[in-house]
Amino acid sequence: MASEIKALVAEKAGTTLSPLTISRRELMPDDVQFDVLYCGICHSDLHQMQNDFGMSQYPMVPGHEIVGKVTAIGSDVTKFKVGDLAAVGCIVDSCGSCASCDGKLEQFCEQGVTFSFNSADKYSGGQTLGGFSKSYVCKEAYTLKMPESLDLAAAAPLLCAGITVYSPLRHWNAGKGKKVGVVGLGGLGHMAIKMAKAMGAEVIVFTTSQNKAADAKRLGAHDAVVSTDKVKMAEYASKVDLIIDTVSAKHDVNEYLNLLAIDGSVVLVGLPPEPLEIGAFNIVMGRRSFSGSNIGGIAETQEMLGFCDKHNITADIELIKASEVNQAFERLAKGDVKYRFVIDMSTLS
Ligand code: NAP
Ligand code: ZN
C-alpha cells in the first residue's frame, strides 16, 4: 500500500514550504523504505525553489541529502535489513544500461537520470518528491550504506555537497604536492577544504567574505585570500594546480584561470544561472582548462562515504527544526550559514 506521510511542500511557484501530506509509492520488490532522520539544505534546493533554471515543478518537496533508518524492504532486497542506516543523495534511478551507467557514471545517464526531487517520476506519473519528508522510498541499487560511526546529522551533507567536491578532487588527482584552490566558502566549499586536505593537498581558499577567511584555516586551509585583495590574489598567479569553483552566482572566472599553473584546471561545480565569460588568453596561456563536474556516481558516492569514515570528515552544520526551514532558506540566500543547514526531521509533524 502507498503511504501517506508529512513533508515540507512548496505548493506553487513563489510559495514557501509548509507541512502537508504527500504519498510514497507502495514498496516494489527492489525498494528500500526508510524514515528520514536528517536532510541537508543545498543551494540547489534554493535554486529550484526560486526556479532559477526555469524547470521547477510543483508541488515541490526539496531535499537530496537524505539519511535515515530502514523501516521496510522489498522481497528482492539483500543489502539492507530493517533497522539499518540508509542514505539517498541526488540520484534515485537511471537506465542502467547505457555507456555512462555501465561506466558507473549514472549522473550522466544517456536516457536522463532521475533525481531525488523535481524529476519526472515514472512510478507516480508526477514528480519525484525529496527528502524534506518523514520517509523515503528508493530502489536498493541507488540507496547508500551509511557508516555507523559518523555523526548522522553532520554526515547528511556528504550525500550532495560531499560527493560533488570529492569526485572532481579525485578525477583531477588532488593530493600530496598539489596546490588546490577552493572558490566560495559555503556548503560545498567547506567540504572541499576538508577533503582536499585529507587527500594531502595544500588548500587555498578564495572567498568574498572577510569574516570567513580566518575560519577557512580552522577548517584546514593553508591560506585564505579575500578575492578583492588584488595584491594577495597576484601572489598565487600561475601557481595553483586545481581550482574547485563552488560559487552559486555569476562571477568572473578569469581571475581564477589566471591563478592556474601550466595544465591546471578550474572545475566549475557551482551552478550560476547566467552564462560565464572566458577570455581566450586566460586559457591559451599555460594550456589551462575550464571544466565542470556534476555530483558523482553511486559507487563513487559509496567510496566517498568510506573515505569520510576513515578520515572522520563531516560537515559543520546548523541543525534546525522543520518549522525553521523558510528562515533557513532566507539566510542561505544571503550566504549566512556556517556551513550547512540540516533539518532534524523528527521535528516535522
Ligand atoms: P552555498 O552554501 O550558498 O555556498 C556558495 C558560496 O558561493 C557562498 O558561500 C559564497 O562564498 C559564494 N558566493 C555566493 N554568491 C556569490 C557571488 N555573487 N560572487 C562570489 N561568490 C559568491 O551553496 P552550496 O550549497 O555550496 O552550492 C554552491 C553551488 O553549487 C550552487 O550553485 C549549487 O546549486 C551548486 N551545486 C552543484 C552541484 C553539482 O553537482 N555540480 C551539486 C551541488 C550543488 P564566500 O562567502 O566564501 O564568497
Ligand atoms: Zn545539492
Written overview of the protein:
By secondary structure, this protein is an alpha/beta fold. The protein folds into 2 domains: 3-158 and 316-347, Medium-chain alcohol dehydrogenases, catalytic domain (Quinone Oxidoreductase, Chain A, domain 1); 161-292, NAD(P)-binding Rossmann-like Domain (Rossmann fold), CATH 3.40.50. Helices cover 24% and strands 27% of the residues. The chain is built from 11 helices and 17 strands. The protein has helices spanning 43-49, 99-102, 152-155, 161-171, 187-198, 210-218, 230-235, 254-257, 280-284, 298-311, 325-333, and strands at 3-9, 18-24, 31-41, 66-73, 85-88, 91-93, 114-115, 135-139, 144-145, 179-183, 202-207, 223-226, 240-245, 260-268, 289-292, 317-321, 340-344. The strands form 4 sheets. Strands 3, 4, 5, 8, 9, 16 and 17 form a 7-stranded mixed sheet that branches. A 6-stranded parallel sheet has the order 12-11-10-13-14-15, covered by helices on one side. It is globular. The model has no long low-confidence stretch (mean pLDDT 97). The chain binds NADP nicotinamide-adenine-dinucleotide phosphate and zinc ion. Residues 42, 44, 64, 160 line the site of zinc ion.
